Amino acid sequence: MVMKASRARRPTLAQVDFERSPFLVIWEVTRACDLACLHCRAEAVHDRHPLELGTEEAMRLMDEVRRFGQPLFVLTGGDPLKRPDVVELVRYGASIGLRMGMTPSGTPLMTEEVLVELKEAGLSRLAVSLDGSTAAIHDAFRGVEGSWAWTIRMLEAARRIGLSTQVNTTVSRYNIDDIDALCELMTRLGIALWSVFFLVPTGRARPRDVASAEEFEAVFEKMYELSRTAPFDIKSTAAPQYRRVILQMQVQERRRGERRGRPEPLTEGIGFSLTDGVGRAKGVNEGDGFLFVNHLGAIYPSGFLPIAAGNVRRDDIVDVYRNSELFRALRDRSRLKGKCGVCEYRDVCGGSRARAYAVTGDYLEAEPFCAHVPTRYRRMVEEGRAEPVEEYFRRRVRPGFEAVVRS
Ligand code: SF4
After folding, report:
1. What is the pTM assigned to this prediction?
2. What structural domains and CATH numbers belong to the chain?
3. What would the mean pLDDT of 366-374 be, rounded to a whole number?
4. Pairing outcome for strands 290-293 and 164-171
5. Is the CB of 341 under 6 A from ligand 1?
């Protein structure tokens, strides 16, 4: 039995024990989508799969997820609006006390009327993808002309009806030169959170689409600078090394006498608040505070790490998260290899396990797109006990990645 939302106590987010419960559960409700994004993780197609989880199975899934407590439960796709029961699903999730989010695609399927229905059903936050400051950049990335304008209209409509919003931006070769303009655009959109995704070369994304480790670093620094004044929160996705950069920048500020408090690997925009109840958690990584269920019920540590540890149709999702070898290994930072294994930032960062897997085939390998070389690793190289970073990755990357991995 689960408690009704009105009587349920919200957990203090910092107290969520990731060994027992994820902060965030994402369910890919369908792979159907009218867009054709160049980098699509889901390799979305036009039509729904006949074996997608049905409405009753989805409700059972939400009941099971509720056993974790009150994780944020996000309906993603494909495009969730390709399912006719999507409002019913939001209503059910909210009624049993889940904090509900949704990531619709930027298409004409989302109207203000639908937004009102979703809000009334209990949607806490709407997250939309915006990958360019202009229609030309975004639409080329998303594969459909008009997507940028539909997305902006969706954000404006959500704002009008008082629905909290989030923008997801995927950083890749296609928009790396547009980051300054994107930062500027974000400050005008009235959002609660800017989630900056760093492309993982899986699904339709190709190795050459990923920006370099040095380019990642430059974007992290811009994100941090923006976070000092932005009226919204900023986080990275599939790039926990941003938390390392935050700590490094704050240490520099302390040295310059510009900062007093202890460095904290989580930034808040100056106007950020928890009023939509969605909140933030510290240190979420693949399988560590995070869980993904695909359209057929397979349980993954992340949508970007396509190794299934079970299926909700036959397995207990709580047991899979807490006890499967895959999830336990991902939460055990002492098992990390290469420079991540000896890094002074291992516990706050740990590298993207999804990118390590995509590039090397081993989810415990070092993060190949991090510019940082840990002090201890440097010493090991000097003493002949470890290979130089470039050599290390050259011998471990999958075919096709040789040219893009440099550090
Ligand atoms: S070396 Fe690994 S653990 Fe250290 S900051 Fe880079 S990605 Fe994070």
Report:
1. 0.89
2. 13-311 (3.20.20.70), 332-407 (no CATH)
3. 95
4. unpaired
5. no
